[in-house]
Amino acid sequence: MCASSHSQVSLQSTSLTSIETSLINDCNDIGLLLHSFPQNRVRNLPATYKYLLYSNHFKPSSSFKFPGRYSDGCNRACQHKYLEENPWFVYSKSEDGIFCLPCVLFATKDNLGQFVCKTFHLWSKKSIKFSAHNSKQCHSIALSRMDALTSSMAHPESSIEVI
Ligand SMILES: [Zn+2]
Asked: Which residues of 78-104 are buried (b: 16+ CB within 10 A; e: fewer)?
């Protein structure tokens, strides 16, 4: 595995305003953040903020009851196993839907559809939609960038330049 440039963590907050910074600090719902931040802004955030969004994200407890949604003739809801089987997916309470968080944080131009810019909640089509997303090359790239980010945060001495 070669260390990509993404393992370099920048501590510069570039052009974030203090309002934006506090929005990110308080955010545990990527769906909510996408209301205030356009997708291209999220994917250009400094690594420290991406890590914050990743590590703070809402994770439903086992007793959490997902709301039902009427589609294709019956009431369906998100299920815990969708998140267990696809650990890169996060549940957005505000949207009652799923996003692929690594793809949101490391999106490319080819990967701006459902799970990335728009939430997914068409539960009756979940199997086909999950496997279509998970087999995309840009998804695999986003996962490896997320891995590089989390390991650089876990071992900051090896990747953060002291300023
Ligand atoms: Zn993805």
From this structure: beeebbeebebbbbbeebbbbbbbbbb
Q: What's the CA-to-centroid distance between 130 and ligand 1, angstroms? A: 9
Per-residue pLDDT of the chain (163 residues; tens, 9 = 90+): 444 444 444 444 457 888 888 888 888 999 999 988 888 889 899 999 999 999 999 999 999 999 998 877 889 999 999 999 999 999 999 999 999 999 999 988 777 789 999 999 999 999 999 999 999 999 999 999 999 999 998 876 665 554 4
Domain boundaries, the chain: 18-158
Ligand 1 geometric centre to CA of 163 (Å): 33
Tokens coding 79: 């299920």
In the reported structure, the alpha carbon of residue 126 is separated from the centroid of ligand 1 by a whole-number distance in angstroms of 14
CA–centroid distance, residue 26 to ligand 1 (Å): 23
H-type alpha helices, the chain: 18-26, 30-36, 39-43, 47-56, 80-85, 101-105, 126-134, 137-154, 156-159
What is the Å distance from ligand 1's center to 42 Cα? 15
CA of 60 to the centre of ligand 1 (A): 19
Question: Considering the entire predicted model, what is its pTM?
Answer: 0.83
